[in-house]
Amino acid sequence: MPNALMLLIPFGAPFVAAVLAIYLPSRARNAAAALAWATSLAGLLCLVALFPAVASGEAVRWSTPWLPTLGVNFTLRLDGLSWLFAVMVQGIGALVVLYARYYMSAADPVPRFFAFLLAFMGAMTGMVMAGDLIVLAAFWELTSLFSFLLIGYWHHNAAARDGARMALTVTAAGGLCLFAGMVVLGRIVGSFDLDVVLASGDIIRNSPWYLAALILILAGALTKSAQFPFHFWLPRAMAAPTPVSAYLHSATMVKAGVFLLIRLWPVLAGTDAWYVIVGSAGMATLLFGAWSAVFQNDLKGLLAYSTISHLGLITLLLGLGSPLAAVAAIFHTVNHATFKASLFMAAGVIDHETGTRDMRRLSGLRASMPVTAALAIVAAAAMAGVPLLNGFLSKEMFLAEAVAHTGGRHLNLALPVLATVASLLSVLYSVRFIHLTFFGPAPVDLPKEPHEPPRWMRFPIEVLVGLCIIVGVLPAITIGPVLAVAVRSVLGDDVPYYSLALWHGFNLPLLMSMIALVGGVTLYKLLGPRINASERPWLVGRVNGARVYDRVMRGVHLAADWIVRRLGASRQQARLRVIILTCLLAAVLGSSMAGLGFDDAGLAVQRPGLGFTLLWIIGASCAVAAAWQAKYHRLAAVVLVGGAGLVSCLTFVWFSAPDLATTQMLVEIVTTVLLLLGLRWLPKRLPNLASPAQESRARRRRLTDLAIAGAAGAGVALVAFAVMTRPSTSPLARYFLEHAYSEGGGRNVVNVLLVDFRAFDTLGEITVLGIVGLTIWALLRRFRPASDSVGHTEQKQNQNDSDDRRENRKLGDTLSETMLIPRVVMRWLFPFIVLLALHLFLRGHDLPGGGFAAGVTLSIAFILQYMASGARWVEERLEIRPLVWIGGGLLIAALSGVASWLFGYPLLTSWFRYFDLPLIGKTPLASAVVFDAGVALLVVGATVLMLVAIAHQSLRKSRQIVPAPVEEETV
Description:
The chain is mainly α. 71% of the residues lie in helices and 3% in strands. It contains 41 helices and four strands. The protein has a two-stranded antiparallel sheet with strand order 1-2. It has a two-stranded antiparallel sheet with strand order 3-4. Residues 961-971 have low confidence and may be disordered.
């Protein structure tokens, strides 16, 4: 398999597997886990197979046009750095999947969990492999979305819901800033291609827009990696299941910000702004996170704050701006992912087998869980930077860089001292974690009897701890080649000399490490009891970012409530008045500043003919009369609105636009019938209920609305007149006319425009139509008609009275006889209308018709059956699944566009050829027909869904208004 295509497996397979997992039964835990494990393992094997190509120094690329007019291509790019991160995503993902199989309860809907996990894996892989800035930003936001679903997986837990919302708000807001920064960066360079951007460092740093791009990009990176002051969301996210914490908060999501800083380090680093912002944020996060971790009593809380601290260490290294610091940052990123993922899993095992994560209740677990204790102790030692473990090596590189940067800037002068203090604190909280959890007397009053977990639940921890030891003992052989490839992809030919040797002699970094190790143990010995008795961190206990976030969100809600109270209204009419007045004000301001261009109009205005004038007099009269009758005579208003629509249809015919006329006529039929069906369930409006004062106010309001409507109508007419009298200078119309057949394979320019040239717009429009149908259905599912609209209409009551007065008659006979002929006609029309819909669909690419017209026509066939025979009769004989039609239509339309990617063409590019078919002859076939079929299916599904929602009101009971109880007075 070509290397470029092999890139698609680790990226695309998780998304495909996520879709498959969604459809598994809720109790299919083993099947979902096997699917997820096989998917991640397949992606990992493909990445291993690609390593020789990556190690050669050339990035492996796969690209296809996405938004070519904007210069955006969907590009996957695998170099040393992205390979390293992708291996972490897939490899640790495989271990987490195995761990989650035993951690998650059989009572949980586990396939849904694995579907979310796989989707996140695909988004994270897509982000690290993105070869285009816009693609990277898109996958960045997808990781925020899927992390929200994973953190809030236990949605019955209020803490999980709050933590998920907080994480999504902070990281998604940062993602929006990142997207803006990527746009600015692309405009500086003139391209969004990552290879071009990475080769334009001097252009970027010398640009006047550099600072704006830097701040926006750093806002995204620092929020994602939980850097101070955006750190507060990560501890709240610990309400997620432990497999989520082990995956997202050790090796993937929180590493996304770090990855971005490393990825753009060659073009953004090296300036004072980079040093001050990144270095200060890293140092503050390193110290604050380490200090806060010391006082945590929850296992996952301690690990969360230690993660924040270690991410701050990596950020600080990148902020220093030296190549050796960048090497240390990459190295520590890998080391942290291994020991922190194993620690999270160990914490989950302890919680799973004891029923608590509170270290004040845990002690002496070394006796009942000896293997888990040994694994957790080794991983904690790696976190503390104990020699012969991987954490020690990267910590030594950090301390060496701290010593090397003691000159120049003010932060550098204090750097060695602060680095030693941070290392000491990491030893302190690691020792506290080990001592409180595994040593001391046996625990009492635990929710569960402590015992070792199942063998395969512990296996992922053993693998990761084994890596900590192997890398710590044999770094040059194990991690050395991979690290060299990753470093070279970032630094290029400027890779400095660095050594992964275990022994560098007695030097200052080693002395600082020894001070940290001895000092951390000594401080715990001296202050351990006081620390264990503390409920919150000393000195910074009142610094609560989550509380600030809550207050900001409350302020936003209060501001929104104030706006609603001031500008909103409980009645839709008042809201529409505000919206239309705002649009009018914007139009007046825009036209006063730019004008409408009547002076440049070079077309002579022709007088309309008498027939056309009479036609529009009729249409205008219908519109005005509909507005006049809308309050108390709704049926007449709907009929008059239909008359205005018919005039619009005839206008299209007048101006030789048969496609528009056909669509207008069909849509007019459907909307008129649906409105008539909906009128049945509206409450009655009687004109004699209002008092004189209320009537006077209503009259003034109607006059105001008339004035606003007149101004809006006049404004729209003025703009339309200005547009139609302006000479057209756009070449689009001529382009579409000339290329519709040669590039789209059709002679109907309008249809080719919809399904080929502007198919992306059409895809968005049918998506909106499907959402509208689902929204109406959801609203009407809980709607119950008012009691005054449930009773029989006057016509039906007269028919029932006639049946009562006559012998040998039963109720409904008169109605059945009245509808006999229409019913027979409507039933016989069904196959002919279906045939007409098929005819319109097949001819649409060359003659008036198309998928939308065919879908509306087929909807009319269903509407007639419901009108003739009722909902029960139809649904007993026709299995109508409008939700399947909507989903299937949207899926077909989307897949027809995605298929073009497989052949190297932009999304939704159509293909057509002529074929000689037996008995038929030369026949044109176009892939746009498949897209059009998706449009037709979705239109039918959305329309029939609305019809079903309205029709089922006749099968439901009315609202029962229960009077409020009246309390009796007592003496």
